[in-house]
Amino acid sequence: MAVAAMPRLLVVHSYEPDQMTDLEQTRGLLSGLARQGYLEGESIDIQHFYMQTKKVFISPEQIEERGREALALIHDLKPDLVLTIDDNAARTVMLPLVDSDIPVVFAGMNGQVEDYDKIRHFMNSRARPGHNVTGVLEKLYISKSVRVMKEVLPELGKIVFIVDNTPTGEALQKQVELALGTDNGGLLYSIWKADNLARYRQFIHKINNDPEIQAYYPLVTRLVRADGSVVPLPEVTRWTLRKCRKPAMAFSYFMAQQGYFGGVSVDFLAMGRHTARKVAQILDGTPAGMLPIEDSSEYAIVFNVARARQLGITIPVEVLSAADAVYDSLGLRTELENPTIFIIQSYEKGTGCGAVLERGLVEALALAGMHVDRDVTVKRFFMDTRYSHTTPDLVHARGQAALQEIKATDPDVVVVLGDNAIAEVMLPLVGTDYPVLFGGMNMDIQRYNSRKHFMNTLQEPGFNVTGVTSEVFFDKIMEMVHVMLPEARKMVAIMPDTEPWLRDLGERMQRHAESCDSQCEFPGSFQLEQVSSLQEFQRLVLKYSADPSVDLLAVPTPVGLLREDGTVNPLADTLSWLFANQHKPGFTFAVDWVAYGYLMAVGMDLKGCGRQLGRQLIRVLSGSDPGEISIETPEEYYLAVNQARARQLGLQIPLEFLEAARKVFVTMTPGLAR
Fold it and tell me: What backbone torsions phi and psi does residue 153 show, to the nearest 5 degrees?
């Protein structure tokens, strides 16, 4: 007696083998068939064909060709039944098989079955199709999901649905329109179509910045980059979780598990079991046309409470207790792989505090195992405002150019170094989706905060900005000056007024001196001169160097001085002239400048500030909100002295002074200043 051959089922999958919703459907299919007595390999032969139309074969022509390849396989295998999963397989395989001698079951169909029927008639009615086709529709339960979200967010008034421009995206858009067209409960909603990754990112930024939008529903199944390559959905999810500050409804368990907020989810496992029952009935002898076409029969309420905490949302206990699944962690790590950091420096390359700060920042990254060009991508923009673009209009124009570069690059973090970058780039980015870190802030931070509010307190900034301020240690400098020159009674300071931060620094120095009483670190008189031209600067240096009543002549930061032709005098030239013509002792605020020839400084460790900034950056790259990271002041400062300059001035540096100094220079190198 001949043994009956096992029935053969060919499953044509629209997507790749690792596509999560397909995996869930397939698991449900196999377990459901087993319940019906059809065990894979024992009582049924199941073959699979993956069209791979999400990542590999994505153009309309390629999708059609993959459909033809599946049909050719069907011709060769002669299966007893064909199952198509998702819309691309339904359109290119199911429809050509209509009224053939092979029964067909579809599953996961997002499009309206009536629309497919218009292309090729296979359905007299949903209840009794009457041909060789039946199946299970993927219903998103939009209305139920919205109602659940309104229970969590009672003020929910506007929601955005994001779809892509694939056939599946069009089908999902129609589902939304049909679901909410008559049953929206007063909800305002919009449907936005993202045709590529850049557009999708623009949508997320727009959602963040629109206070009327309280939630969104991402229904994108495929996004492409500018070069046409497909972006892996985990990459899209990772970026979204880092950037978006509004709750996202999840249409599957898997999305909620990854980290989306939640809502009413399609139960893909149950949909697979539902499909299995139809397959078993057909194999048992019921004609496909006798079985109703049905919506997926089950849904689930799912939430991710870890994401809720990130967003500051409390899910009511009664809603949470009704959930079918609750996740308390982000299944998808939000740390970026090879994140992009955009560094804006105020001055020219290698010039000013920005260059030193960046070196410290890069050191901190390396110590944490994050190496530039291997683990992180660094883009740079130099505003060139020390020598090339020096007028207020030109500085502003360079800031605008930097903002355009940021927009084009769309980095993960923006780092601004120096006051011009802070004023022209950081302040306009306040309240945007970009995490911003600053360093080299010489102006009083409260003055910046009064221009654009970015800080509630230093300890809890509360916005998208944090960083490390610069610090001028007026009291420590005056104390060291008094130790070195105890008989000094009159000090004159010459400060440029060529940039706002320089004017602010001079004003603070004067306020500090005027507030001194008899117990002050420097008990003498103080006089401030502010200049912009090189000629006036040199005149004043010569004047006070020759004045016998002046004991101290401080020229701390002679940058930006204008020559007669309107160009900026190079700092190296200014310092070379200064050290040759200034015959009174003085100081600077920058310990690094003591190497050029300044007598002394008590100042912050600029490279150390860069390392502080780097540690803040690492926290942001690991998912921390800049608004929750305290704005810091420099952790380290120290005394530096130059013995060569002391000899030039005929001074003997006290031994205790030398012992207290962290750095003692024995040469003068003004030509190295930049």
Answer: -120, 85
Q: pTM higher than 0.90, yes or no?
A: no
Q: At 289, phi and psi to the nearest 5?
A: -65, -10
Q: CB–CB of 609/632 below 8 Å?
A: no
Buried b (16+ CB within 10 A) or exposed e, 354-390: bbbbbebbbebbeeeebeeeeebebeebbbbbbbebb
Three-state SS letters, 573-605: HHHHHHHHHCCCCCCECCHHHHHHCCCEEEEEC
pLDDT, tens only, 7-62: 999 999 999 998 888 888 999 999 999 999 999 999 999 999 999 998 889 888 99
Q: In whole angstroms, how far apart are CA 662 and each of 399, 473, 594, 639, 641?
A: 37, 16, 12, 6, 9
d(CA 600, CA 261): 57
- Residue 15 neighbours by CB distance under 10 Å: 25
Sign of CA dihedral 369, 418, 589, 511: negative
Q: Which residues contact 506 (CB under 8 A, 6 or more apart)?
A: 493, 495, 497, 528, 530
Beta bridge partners of 8: 45
What tokens were used for 123? 């359905």
Contact yes or no for 91/110 (Cβ under 8 A): no
Beta-ladder partners of 82: 10, 104
pLDDT score at 256: 87
Q: How many angstroms separate the CA atoms of 254 and 233, rounded?
A: 12
**What pLDDT is attached to residue 141?**
82
DSSP summary character for residue 288: G
- Residues facing 376 on adjacent strands: 372
Go through the chain and tell me how many residues it has: 674
For position 457, what pLDDT does the model report? 94
| Percent of the chain whose predicted confidence (pLDDT) is above 70 | 97
Closest to 273 in 3D by CA, of 17, 20, 33, 10: 33
Structure tokens at 528: 């401030």
pLDDT value at 455 more than 90: yes
Structure token digits, residue 56: 């590999």
pLDDT above 80 (res 3): no
d(CA 171, CA 109): 9
- Per residue in 196-255, pLDDT tens? 888 898 899 889 888 899 999 999 988 888 778 888 888 888 888 888 889 998 888 888
b/e per residue 609-641 (b: at least 16 CB within 10 A): bbbbbbbbbbbbbeeebbbebebbebeebbbbb
| Cα–Cα distance measured from residue 260 to residue 19, given in angstroms and rounded to the nearest whole number | 17
Residue 507 CB burial class (10 angstroms; 0-12, 13-18, ≥19): middle
- Give the chain's largest Cα–Cα span: 126
Instruction: Please give the C-alpha separations between residue 509 and each of 68, 285, 524, 554, 640, in angstroms, as whole numbers.
Output: 80, 95, 14, 11, 20
Task: Please report, as a single letter, which amino acid is at residue 121.
Answer: H
Q: How many other C-beta atoms lie within 10 A of the C-beta of residue 228? A: 9
If DSSP codes are grouped into helix, strand and coil, which group holds residue 326? strand
Q: How many CB atoms lie within 10 A of CB 555?
A: 25
The residue behind tokens 């000013």 is 352
- Interatomic CA distance for residues 105 and 396, integer angstroms: 64
Q: Return the residue matching tokens 């497909």.
A: 230
Residue 174, H or E segment = helix 167-181
Nearest partner of 605 among 616, 621, 594, judged by Cα = 594
